[in-house]
Inverse folding.
């Protein structure tokens, strides 16, 4: 049994090319008001949404998002921040213990921000808009937070471009649900199961990357022959992720989220 929500989610695709049509503040307000019904730990709503349309600010954000074209092409960037700044000001004003300056609080706020981001994305798509999530938001949170004037206890964690699509890319296949769902308890995978789960992904993924001239060249230069190597040698290297990890941890401390006393 399916309904419009099932169909909408099934049709999701990342949009990287946009029309110049403006996304009105009224539509963004409507989406945000409904998206805020997302689940939230203790109903604290420890998130903030930064809507960026200004050309100059997006020019500053462009290199921080690894020069991804949609940063400039989309009429709007939306950044969702883990935010305990607002809550802490309210707590202090009411002379209650000034908590929420630790890693657990950051995780709670990050989950809150991610939940509303997904709600926002689904609502936007239901109105004919397109989005493309950008993992660069967290990878460069320290620099993006600087550009967006994020105070203590505020960290950008999720972001996406937003606008009316000017392309209709194919829907990309996901892993089979049988490889993701576990019954009762976690059931670890054997070698044969891993091969079955990733078989289609390996075939389609290598075909996709081989059809992009820049990626194909990189694959040849780095002697990359499997999709697993594409992910670990080209896209998500150990060196890059160690650097991003160090940047995030340092930024969390700078933003007053690592008080463990």
């Amino acid at each position: 049994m399916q309904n419009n929500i099932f169909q909408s989610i099934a049709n999701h695709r990342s949009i990287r090319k946009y029309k110049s049509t403006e996304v009105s503040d009224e539509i963004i307000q409507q989406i945000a008001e409904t998206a805020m019904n997302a689940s939230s730990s203790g109903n604290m709503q420890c998130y903030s949404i930064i809507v960026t349309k200004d050309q100059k600010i997006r020019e500053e954000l462009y290199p921080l998002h690894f020069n991804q074209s949609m940063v400039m092409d989309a009429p709007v960037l939306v950044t969702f921040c883990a935010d305990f700044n607002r809550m802490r000001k309210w707590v202090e004003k009411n002379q209650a213990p000034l908590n929420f300056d630790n890693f657990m609080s950051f995780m709670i706020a990050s989950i809150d921000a991610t939940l509303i981001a997904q709600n926002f994305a689904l609502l936007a798509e239901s109105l004919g808009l397109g989005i493309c999530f950008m993992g660069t938001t967290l990878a460069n949170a320290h620099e993006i937070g600087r550009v967006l004037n994020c105070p203590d206890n505020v960290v950008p964690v999720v972001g996406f471009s937003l606008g009316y699509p000017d392309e209709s890319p194919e829907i990309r296949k996901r892993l089979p649900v049988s490889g993701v769902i576990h019954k009762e308890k976690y059931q670890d995978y054997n070698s044969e199961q891993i091969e079955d789960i990733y078989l289609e992904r390996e075939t389609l993924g290598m075909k996709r990357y081989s059809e992009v001239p820049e990626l194909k060249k990189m694959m040849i230069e780095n002697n990359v022959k499997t999709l697993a190597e594409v992910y670990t040698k080209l896209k998500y290297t150990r060196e890059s992720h160690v650097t991003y990890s160090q940047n995030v941890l340092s930024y969390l401390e700078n933003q007053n989220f690592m008080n463990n006393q």
Summary: The mean pLDDT is 96. The CA atoms of residues 233 and 239 lie 10 Å apart. The chain has two domains: 4-170, 177-239.
